[in-house]
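Listing 4. Sequential folding, example run.
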Amino acid sequence: MKLDATDLRYVTSDEFRVLTAVEMGSKNHEVVPLSLIVQISGLRNGGINKLVGSLAKRNLISRVQNAKYDGYRLTYGGYDYLAMRALSKRDSMHSVGNQIGVGKESDIYIVADAEGNEMVLKLHRLGRVSFRAIKSKRDYLGKRKSASWLYMSRLSAQKEWAFMKILSEHGFPVPKPIDQARHCILMSFIDAYPLRQVSEVENPGKLYSQLMDVIVRFAQAGLIHGDYNEFNILIKREDGEPIVIDFPQMVSTSHENAEWYFNRDVECIRTFFKRRFRYESSLYPRFRKVIEESGETGFKLDVAVEASGFGRKEMKVLEEVSFFYLILWPSLKLIFAVHGSCKGYRRT
């Protein structure tokens, strides 16, 4: 789903009331009945059909075919508009520019405030086509078979916001968080490029040490990135310093699989430097040693994040999805690439 903010200024206040009503109705209904939309929006039944038709034509809501009743779902387009309207009303964001990145679970855009200062808008989009196809065949979400991807995306954004905010406040090399609404995060723009685009560096040993030091600093603060690789590390053009991004999968060092996540982060960096720069070092952090040296006393950021409002319940819900994205899905993609389509799965 590509963000299109062209029509945002033309959406009326009544149409936004309908969008909000569909969103609120989605908390208890997979398909929101028209009667409930009328009730929540407080609009007259006679005019609601025109508003719903206008929103459906813009692909901000979608009518569900073959439903037992006349019902609608909020689309990512509608969710985008609700989030951007919230950011605009708070004077956090004024205009939307070009898309600068796309990932397996997010889209990245350049935006600006009223003074023209550039920022980055990240829209979380869990439930891409490939994941939905798999979910229809296998229940990787356990009991959460009817999980709303909009809700999961919102949780993902809230988690990333909580971690980015606490990391920024404590001097970690991360973008500065500016605002958050629904599934969107607004953050500072950094003139940098992904590590995956770097073909050579003047001193690979120095950069290697810097990246390993960040892993250690995270762990000493009670955190593990969980997806620490060349795709989620930026190199600043100005001074070559690394910036770490993408935190929805971050876990606490007290997590039951913490050592596995830690070792994987370390191995991702070692493998990349060996492959790209032909640099290999026998020095790399060990989880147990780092934890022992950090001690059990002192301020732990994982505790602070939970205290900020994003607690264990929300973490557990997201982990069900993150496990698929980070572990099962890469393995399935490899299988599909080798064996081609099988049992109805599409090669991606």
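-- end of first protein; second protein begins --
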Amino acid sequence: MGETKKYCYGFCLLISVAVNILFSINLYVGGDKRQVISSQSTLTWSEKAAEEAEAVAGIYCSGHGRAYLDGLISQGQPVCECFDCYAGSDCSELSPGCAADADSGDPVFFEPFWMQHAADSAVVISGWHRMSYRYADGTTMSKELENYIRKLHSVVGNAVTEGRYIVFGIGSTQLLNAAVYALSSGNSSSPSNVLASIPFYPMYKAQTVFFNSEDFQFEGDTNSWQSNNQTNTMDVIEFVTSPNNPDGELKKPVLGGKTIYDHAYFWPHFTPIKGPSDRDLMIFTLSKLTGHAGTRFGWAIIKDKDIYDKVLNYISVADLGISKDTQLRVLKLIKVAVEGDGMPLFEFSYNKMKDRWDRLTSVFSKSTRFSIQQRHPLYCNFFNETRLPSPAYAWVKCEREEDHDCSAVLKAGKIIGRNGSLFSADDRYTRLSLIKSQDDFELLMKRLTELVSLEDGSIKMI
């Protein structure tokens, strides 16, 4: 009996020692693993940044302004930055005589969409994020972002990217001149002639003249140039803006030479997508895709390797590449843009633009003094139905003979537009922006209705 107890105590002692050894191993060896798991599920350095961002985003500005982390500060706290025509500490005070500013192409109408997708589109950047000029592969462009841009065009069906090169730029603005540089002859004794069809985006002329290169010069309107130059031997670079800024038309080349396709507005919310653009050099911009104009990001899709190398060299010399912080944010935004095959973003933006055009058309249909561009329905492969275009801008014409300066007529009615002459067109035309905030659009509708109602006094507020 004593021997049995002795063996029992010994066995229990052995089991106890074994359990303690296993516990100790788990404590000192497995502890690191538990710590890693814990750190993965608990915010550490990013928590403060997230709290700051949400605190500022939550500041009440009555829906007519916003507070920002990098914005105005009063008594150590961020304060509201009010939208046009609003004032006060919470932006609740509307100036009754304020003019409707429809001048700029600031695409703020997307803002409600991104507020609805706050978690998916937010970016927290560590203090040590991408401090190098280059990525690990030695380039200055994110390969993952390039892949998502290709995916985006595949989803939307608006551009061929297979077998093409992609270059990033600071908005499409930088890429426009980079493209002119790349396509120019490089012969100072016979510079390339840069042209566009009236009405055209003013930056084509402004940039070409500003950079004052010996290799290219701005020569104005394609149709006028063609009628005065019968020879086909002259070196020509043509800007084709499709859809066009300011009138929204789907443009085609006039001269058939070296061409830069500016597709800033070639998205389903502005125009039906008939099929993918298959051009040698196409330029797109984030600002008119998602509304993030301030992020300053664009991209060119290029067929020819030599032209690609020249555009890439231009960007490298000018900026040593695009901000890595910008590229990270753009990647996040485009990931959201392609969710659900793009339907959430493009249905939101299209419905917003359609509603604005429906209301705008209703007002102008009651006017004999003012008219806007004609729109023609087209089949959209993205939405799989026939739809009217809903351009970013209304191209307004003053029909009365005495109204030779349409911008001045609208300004007298407290509406600020952009003169037709800025687009090298007649000043009987004025461009009105339809892509600003809802506050801006509502005020524009109010002022337009007031102005048109003066014609017969029968129009009610829309």
